[in-house]
Amino acid sequence: MRYLLLLIMVLALSGCDHPSAHSHKQQMYVFGTLVEVIIWTEDEAAATEAMSQLSAQFQRQHQQWHPWEAGELHTFNQQLTTGEPAPIPDVIAPLLQRASELSVASGGLFDPSLGQLVKLWGFSDNLVNATQPPDAEQLADFIKQAPHISDLEINNGLAQSHNPLLYLDFGGFAKGYAVDRAIETLRQMGFDNAIVNAGGDLRAIGSKDEWPWRIGIRNPRGEGLIASLQISGDESVFTSGDYERFYDYQGKRYHHIIDPRSGYPAEGFSSVTILHHDAATADAAATALLVAGPEQWREVAKKMGLSQVMVITPRGEISMSPAMVERIRFEVSPEPDVNVVDW
Amino acid sequence: MLRRGDYLVFLATLLLLPWLYFTLWGDQRAGAYAQILVGGDQQALVSLHQPQTIEVEGALGLSILEIVDGKIRFITSACQGKQCIHRGWINLGGEVVSCLPNQVSIAILGGEQRFDAINF
Amino acid sequence: MSELGYRQILTQPRDHRIAWWAALAITIHIVESALPSPIPGLKLGLANVVVIAVLMLYGWRDALWVALLRVLVGSLLIGTFLTPTFILSLSGAVASMLALGIAYYFSRLLPNWALGALGYSVLAAQAHMLGQFTAAYLLLIPHPALFKLLPVLMTAALVFGVISGMIATAMINNVEKRAHSGTSG
Lengths: 343, 120, 185
Prior knowledge:
A: 343 residues, alpha+beta, T-fold, 3-stranded antiparallel β-sheet, C: 185 residues, mainly alpha, Arp2/3 complex 21 kDa subunit ARPC3
């Protein structure tokens, strides 16, 4: 009786208008990580088709952009180490262009030329391949001659490296770039409401009819979520943290985001969350700001044109831009104090 | 003076009210089931309400999962990086933890599913 | 009637009766609204006593009139007409009248299982609270946290439903006593 009543009221009040679109989700092990694609649509068949296309696209990109395994980038890198001019492969050119721009904007804190450094630490390819830090002398030698993306001279589709230690590894922003391409593909296929979530970093477009996408942000320390936000439109949420890939050695933790200036894992922040339109920028920015640390992050954020940033120190102190304060809703209680800072 | 119909109403109410407390005051966000996937395909669906250990055979070898107190985690895994183990416990609807090298992942189903995606 | 098109509204005794009871309900409603409430939306619902009494004495339709008049006129007099409070009140009234309607006709079909004042009261109070809650959730505060309040609200509704039921019973007995003493006098 009561339930009939409730049902009648709900139907009456909702105008008997139930959407037939719903979320189609698929998880794929691609691109060295777990990617989840969510498409909001009524067309189940088209969604399934889209998923398999995206899966194939990611696999292709993974192979083409892998710094160390057989593929276009690997070959290109080999050629560059000879010091001779080498033709830039078509599948690498846009990646290289974008990465260079972002590297400059970040003041060099994000730099795709440091493949050798990443390898020394054992963090290539989204994996953890080492159990102890590299030899200190080896590191020192590397830093002395540290490569920068500016060591790569580009002319008419040919690239020439002026530093033998230069080795392209787009790991710091490749996920973001791939997410952007995936969103492009989905749009071309006629989907305007979707999320592409590559291992926790995502871009969301559109919405679920009248409901925005709800995104939870994991607590960098501890269980559960620290905050959440809503997206409707077209935005990316990327977080870089010291808890994602690391190993412990002799009581110290070494994580995968290396500061190119010191050669050691960045210190100062336990996580950086960026909200930005395109994923490639968000990805590079999250990396760059984590490296920048509490002294420099605002400067870099300004240079990279970011307006919505949240940073958390290992002690749990949170700072945010004013625009970010509008977006973030805390999911822990008591709500933490927040430093609101601008640039 | 109570009529027979009154007893019906009371019965219904006395059934409804405890149910409301139980359902709405329990931790809604906690999931009821964990879905275990190997290579992207569902291998098992396990209840989080029953403490247990589960052995899963993946691409590289064995991963061992543990369920205690409505939460689940990896305790050992065949990978080198052990990131899956570092991730710790999960229990909220929508949360996922995976051992990528071993291609084993755990997803929490049920619960309030307040979020469409979790950023980390 | 007259060439000018003037029509006289002829009132029936039933109209007088409804007006009288509605006035009573409205008065109680207004007095009750002056009382502070610990949780928003939590009203003792004493005016429901009148609705139940009318239901049992004169049937569902009369009760419906009284209920709707109470909400409408009450809100006009208090000054909450068309405010969110009014929407909640109306939702509650509609929900409880629907429930009562179903129960009433159910009682007519199966007299052995008919409801008494207490049953109707509890049913009405629960339906009223559910109706208000639904309206509040859908139109005012679509926040999942609101559900935490529901068990408490429904418990309170049960308690007040029982109290109103007892008062309604007393009221009905009183009226019937007078009716009997009147006709037998």
